[in-house]
Amino acid sequence: MENSPANNFLEAIIAEDLASGRVQEVVTRFPPEPNGYLHIGHAKSISVNFGLAERFGGRCNLRFDDTNPEKESQEYIESIQEDVRWLGYQWDGEVRYASSYFQQLYDWAVYLVEQGDAYVCDLDAQQAREYRGTLTEPGRNSPYRDRGIAENLDLLHRMKTGEFGEGAKVLRAKIDMASPNMNMRDPILYRIRKAAHHQTGTEWVIYPTYDFAHGQEDAIEGITHSICTLEFEDHRPLYDWLIEHLPVGSRPRQYEFGRLNTSYTVTSKRKLKQLVDEGVVTGWDDPRMPTVSGMRRRGFTAQAIRRFCNMIGTTRSDGVVDVAMLEHAIRDDLNENAIRGMCVLKPLKLVLTDYPEDQVEALSAPAHPGRAELGTRTLPFTRELYIDVEDFREEANKKYKRLVLGKRVRLRNAYVIEADEVVKDDSGAVIEVRAHTVADTLGRDPDDGIKPKGVIHWVSAQKGVQATIRLYDRLFHHEAPDKADEHFLDLVNPESLQVVEGAWIEPALAAADREQNFQFEREGYFVADRFDHSSDAPVFNRTIGLRDTWNNAF
RNA sequence: UGGGGUGUCGCCAAGUGGCAAGGCACCGGGUUUUGAUCCCGGCAUUCGCAGGUUCGAAUCCUGCCACCCCAGCCA
After folding, report:
1. Catalytic position from the list A22, A85, A129, A269
2. Which of A171, A246, A250, A325 is most enclosed, with most CB atoms within 10 A?
3. Which nucleotide's C1' sits nearest to the alpha carbon of A445?
4. Is the CB of A546 under 7 A from strand B?
5. A475 and A399 in a common domain
6. Residue A540 belongs to what domain range?
7. Is A194 annotated as catalytic?
8. Domain-embedded: residue A551
């Protein structure tokens, strides 16, 4: 149990409930419907629910709210579990399923009928809509509302045994057709669905609705604080009504918080599916997707995602969090933990004319400049190297701190060199730079006192390894692809992925484990692809570039 | 226009009657073998608006405005 001040309204409520003795322990749950992949918004909900349990020494269940067989599948059940675990959370006990409570839920439906609180209604969907009224007009009572208890019991039983077709009948709670809250206008509790269920097969042909299932599931599991998003607020009176009218064993309470929205992102399942179906991305785990599996493949760490969720807080207001905050959380984590390496994306040959042709010097470089405990790596240095095309100019003004013809630059972790001449092809493009090393500059400044202005990275042409580098950027170039005038698919950033085939990496990087994070110095953070990387054919994904404050106007 | 919510710096967010935390972003400056990190400094006389109560209000009262959610046998 925690004594530090509450970080948000939920923590305040729980601390109070614990102090007053309303609850002895905290039990929350993350209740996804297995009908899609988890995304950044779910990560927030997971963080809230598991985080609360963690902070107060309680428990958090993972419960699949599988009450609609037509939209769900086992595939999602598995991916959701994998994502939750990857995020670093462990649910209490076994995974739970709403479907394993179907019999209890049915018995409670019978109970409601017996109490005169529910009835079987024959109105079809169209008619039900008409009887429901509108936001400003009250609804009218269904003509079946006053059926006798015995008849209702008989009808409900026959619904269950499959006597009626889909849509022919529903079970409704008898509450108030004139309520200003649409959810209280005799809400539907059960509907007929003759579809096989991924967990219960063909055992059932009637399925409880979310409203009839959720609160009762919470009660069965002893959930103390049932946390959901704001759009369910209007359902709370119904949630409470059902709990009060049923002989459930515990009294869960529902609390709502504002859903997470991120700029430059879409998270609706429909839109994400469209991106996949239209081939805009390669799949649900494409590194540009805001799905948990996509972020994972992109190189985001679970710790950074969790930190981000804490950073943005949990409130009842709905806003749009700047995706720059997420990016900050990622950089912050990776800067601290990622091993450094060098990678040349656009190679330009550099020949050190004073360096022996067959000499290979094994230089040593720190794995991390600020964390000596992470050790060192060996960097082969040779006469021919690759540097980045962007790091050389025949001439430039003083703001350019890289290699310029006739000037000096420091080769990262190696010598200071001075460029002497260039070799050009027929079109006049520089294809090679010839330079010489400045004596005795390994680990120290030149004796003549002329310090180089900048430092550039490099890879040995003889010992380096070629790699495929996937440069990812934001999928959309519009801040709010959801609410723009243009169709969101027209707002896709055409440069969200650039594949570089001929990049050169220092040899140590080829041995990277899949999913290992690195900082390629002066370029950004990269991860060895979870599926495609191998030491024979290295593949790295750019997670996020380094912060760049250089006013690139020269 | 019925009901339920939310409105504090460009974004997120503390604050719950005593004189506007913090983070992101941004702008300066310093350190630096990553134009990164790090470090220093700047960044709301003002809390959706208008009245009122009070010695004193972002915090209390009244009225108004804006935005979000609800008319699935989806969750």
Report:
1. A269
2. A171
3. B33
4. yes
5. no
6. 269-339+467-544
7. no
8. no
Contact (Cβ atoms closer than 8 angstroms) between residue A529 and residue A541: yes
Q: Is residue A91 located within the same domain as residue A206?
A: yes
Note if A288 is an active site residue.
no
**Integer distance in angstroms from CA A551 to C1' B41?**
21
Q: Scan residues 456-515 of chain A and list those with Cβ within 7 Å of strand B.
A: none
Please compute, for residue A456, the number of CA atoms within 13 A of its CA located in the half-sphere on the CB side. 28
pLDDT digits (tens, 9 = 90+) for A443-482: 999 999 999 999 999 999 999 999 999 999 999 999 999 9
Helical packing angle, A236-245 and A210-221, nearest 10°: 60
Question: What digits encode the pLDDT tens for the residues A380-423?
Answer: 999 999 999 999 999 999 899 999 999 999 999 999 999 999 99
Structure tokens at A206: 């009637």
Over the stretch A64-112, which tens digit does the pLDDT of each residue have?
999 999 999 999 999 999 999 999 999 999 999 999 999 999 999 999 9
* From A2, A33, A54, A82, the catalytic residue: A33
Could you please report the per-residue DSSP string of A172-235? EE-S-TT-SSGGGSS-EEEEE----BTTTBTS-SEEE-HHHHHHHHHHHHT-SEEEEEGGGGGG
CA distance A355 to A414: 13
Query: Is A233 a catalytic site residue?
Result: no
Same domain, yes or no: A181 and A209: yes
Q: Which two three-digit tokens encode residue A434? A: 């010839």
User: What was the ipTM of the complex prediction?
Assistant: 0.97
pLDDT at A552: 58
Crossing angle of helices A210-221/A102-114, nearest 10°?
110
A412 touches strand B (CB under 7 A): yes
Proximity of residue A549 CB to strand B below 7 A: yes
- CA–CA gap between residue A151 and residue A173 (Å, rounded): 15
Does at least one atom of strand B sit less than 7 Å from the CB of A335? yes
Is the same domain home to A107 and A211?
A: yes
The CA-atom distances, in angstroms, between A410 and each of A168, A377, A416, A450, A520 are 79, 19, 4, 11, 17
pLDDT at A2: 52
Helix segments in A452-524, DSSP class H: 507-510
Segment A99-147, tens digit of pLDDT: 999 999 999 999 999 999 999 999 999 999 999 999 999 999 999 999 9
Nucleotides on chain B that have an atom closer than 7 A to a protein CB are 1-8, 10-16, 22-27, 33-38, 68-75
Nearest to A94 by CA among A257, A209, A250, A221: A221
Residue A554 domain-assigned (yes or no) = no
Sign of CA dihedral A262, A265, A271, A277: negative
Identify the bridge partners of residue A39 per DSSP, sorted by sequence position.
A291
Based on the domain organization, do A295 and A406 belong to the same domain?
no
